[in-house]
Amino acid sequence: MKILETTDLSVDFNGFKAISELNFSLNQGEVRVILGPNGAGKTTLMDLITGKTKPTAGKIKLSGTDITGLEPYEISKLGVGRKFQGPNIFDNMTVFENLEVALQGYHPVFKALFFKKKKEITDRIYDILTKINLERKALNYAVNLSHGEKQWLEMGMLLAQDPQLIILDEPTTGMTADETYKTGELIETLFKGRSVLVIEHDMAFVRQIARMVTVLHQGKFLAEGTLEEIENNSTVQEVYLKEESHA
Ligand SMILES: Nc1ncnc2c1ncn2[C@@H]1O[C@H](COP(=O)(O)OP(=O)(O)OP(=O)(O)O)[C@@H](O)[C@H]1O
């Protein structure tokens, strides 16, 4: 089944086509990396899927439901979770509290109402903490975590919201090679069986996580295949070489 499908999707910024008649689809449970040189339209595509940018033409379907033109909060409610490049967590809360907020929202006044659910919630939080390797830091303030740990905490928070589609925008930016590798492992364990779209430039990381890669260029579909196929694709090579010669 297709979790995501775009049909002739286009967006025009004052005459400039940042995404142009794009037909893209993602299968349920698939991890797909979106590649493309600077300005290819990768971020714009994610903005269209999440409702941040409204398309000029075309359609977007999520699990068969037309979500074209919906507002970001509506799309998020339908189960699309997005993680932006930098860590976006509550610095002045503990790791545990960050996950608690992600699971049940921030309702200090109504906390008592959740009392009965407490055990269930705590178990779920510890399950995620174990997966993101932060169980020993549950009571530490998030501000004191390393860059990698902050990113992993946010991935745990994303999972806590149980999204049907997860979008990760360059998740390894600023990470050491070791942290990058651990992030790849995390995507395989934490998001196992989930549908994930990733924008990423780090090729070792792409090789680690993706079965299939889609390449965009100037807002258009350029190629799709395994990373090996993409690396051997002469059109893709040409586009990247041209970009390098302009850099
Ligand atoms: N709101 C906007 N108004 C006008 N032009 C825009 C807007 N958003 C994006 N663009 C343009 O659309 C093109 C695609 O940008 P986008 O950020 O999607 O590319 P990208 O593939 O994510 O690139 P990068 O790898 O550099 O992040 C760029 O030329 C950008 O300048």
From TrEMBL:
Keywords per UniProt: ATP-binding, Nucleotide-binding, Transport
PROSITE patterns the record matches: ABC_TRANSPORTER_2
GO annotation, cellular component aspect: plasma membrane
Coiled-coil portions: none
GO MF, any single term: ATP hydrolysis activity
Family matches, as Pfam families: ABC_tran
Domain of life: Bacteria
The ABC transporter domain, residue ranges: 4-243
SMART domains tied to this protein: AAA (SM00382)
SUPFAM superfamilies: P-loop containing nucleoside triphosphate hydrolases
InterPro entries reported in the protein's UniProt record: AAA+_ATPase, ABC_AA/LPS_Transport, ABC_transporter-like_ATP-bd, ABC_transptr_urea_ATP-bd_UrtD, P-loop_NTPase
Family matches, as NCBIfam families: urea_trans_UrtD
PANTHER family in the cross-refs: CONSERVED COMPONENT OF ABC TRANSPORTER FOR NATURAL AMINO ACIDS-RELATED, HIGH-AFFINITY BRANCHED-CHAIN AMINO ACID TRANSPORT ATP-BINDING PROTEIN
Name the record gives this protein: ABC transporter ATP-binding protein
Organism: Paenibacillus abyssi
